[in-house]
């Protein structure tokens, strides 16, 4: 009988202890502690992501990657035509007109043209050809009669320059320009387009293009698979380069903004491009 009383007393004390720790005040304290732990965890994850993004940004800060053009950066600065400048002259005033004229000259003479046009051809069609045509223009070329503004050599050269300017190309034209930059930068000889460095650089150009596309079109599963295939192709080419020359391999990794783990590690199909 006494043992039953002692057991009942112990059970009562245990129940009282459980009740003490399940009061609303204790529950609120545990909940606040859990919220604080979750907040600290989220802050740590955010800091880790920020540091990873900063490391990736420093890794991508190379001369070759900085020389590549992006369509959204080119197309956001549409060139100002002479008609647009004349139409806005009355609204902006003479002080801003000079700035507009400088912007037109800067855009027209940026020196970036379509991939099928080289510097010598541009000099011929924008400088030599308009002067030759003006010299063979009869009374206008001899200076007897005033020449119309559109027939002046500098105006003709500016028109041709605008037609073949990279700013007036489409996204495919910008990719071709970047591929030409890759061949010029990594080619071991003039016109070298088959060396492993050039092939890896060309794959990098196309990978960057697909990354920009997938950041906007997140449900484009077909291009996401194509993106993964390009990653595998580039890794295969760089592994071949490593077997050929270890020095060229590490130099190429540095110029392309890559690490050894990005090439030799496991390559998975990403769910989302950030």
Question: Helical stretch count?
Answer: 15
CATH topology name of the domain at 187-264: Helix Hairpins
Shape: elongated
The major β-sheet equals:
none
Beta strand count: 0
Average pLDDT, rounded to a whole number, is 75
Radius of gyration: 33 Å
* Poorly predicted regions: 100-106, 138-142
CATH superfamily of the domain at 187-264: S15/NS1, RNA-binding
What helical percentage do the residues reach? Answer: over 70%
Structural class: mainly alpha
The SSE order reads HHHHHHHHHHHHHHH
What would CATH call the class of the domain at 187-264? Mainly Alpha
The separation of the N and C termini measures: 72 Å
CATH architecture of the domain at 187-264: Orthogonal Bundle
Strand percentage:
under 5%
Verbal overview:
The protein has 15 helices and no strands. The protein is an all-alpha fold and 274 residues long. Among the domains are: 118-163, no CATH class; 187-264, S15/NS1, RNA-binding (Helix Hairpins, Orthogonal Bundle). Residues 100-106 and 138-142 have low confidence and may be disordered.
What topology emerges from the helices and strands here?
Blueprint: H1 2-21, H2 24-60, H3 63-67, H4 71-75, H5 82-87, H6 89-92, H7 94-108, H8 119-135, H9 139-142, H10 153-163, H11 171-186, H12 196-216, H13 221-244, H14 246-256, H15 260-264
Helix pairs in contact: 8-10, 11-12, 12-13, 12-14, 13-14
């Amino acid at each position: 009988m006494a043992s039953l009383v002692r057991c009942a007393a112990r059970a009562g004390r245990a129940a009282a202890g459980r009740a003490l720790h399940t009061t609303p005040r204790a529950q609120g304290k545990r909940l606040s502690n859990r919220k604080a732990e979750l907040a600290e965890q989220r802050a740590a994850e955010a800091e880790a992501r920020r540091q990873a993004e900063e490391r990736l940004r420093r890794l991508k800060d190379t001369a070759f990657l900085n020389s590549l053009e992006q369509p959204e950066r080119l197309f956001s600065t549409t060139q100002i035509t002479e008609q647009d400048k004349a139409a806005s002259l009355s609204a902006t005033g003479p002080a801003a007109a000079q700035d507009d004229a400088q912007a037109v000259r800067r855009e027209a003479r940026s020196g970036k043209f379509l991939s099928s046009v080289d510097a010598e051809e541009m000099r011929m069609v924008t400088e030599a050809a308009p002067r030759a045509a003006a010299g063979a223009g009869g009374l206008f070329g001899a200076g007897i009669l005033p020449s119309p503004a559109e027939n002046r050599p500098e105006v003709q050269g500016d028109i041709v320059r605008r037609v073949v300017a990279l700013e007036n190309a489409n996204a495919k034209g910008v990719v071709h320009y970047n591929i030409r930059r890759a061949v010029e930068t990594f080619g071991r000889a003039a016109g070298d387009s088959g060396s492993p460095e050039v092939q890896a650089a060309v794959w990098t150009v196309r990978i960057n293009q697909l990354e920009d596309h997938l950041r906007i079109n997140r449900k484009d599963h077909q291009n996401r698979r194509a993106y993964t295939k390009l990653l595998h192709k580039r890794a295969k080419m760089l592994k071949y380069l490593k077997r050929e020359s270890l020095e060229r391999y590490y130099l190429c990794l540095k110029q392309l903004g890559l690490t050894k783990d990005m090439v030799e590690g496991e390559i998975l199909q990403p769910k989302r491009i950030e």
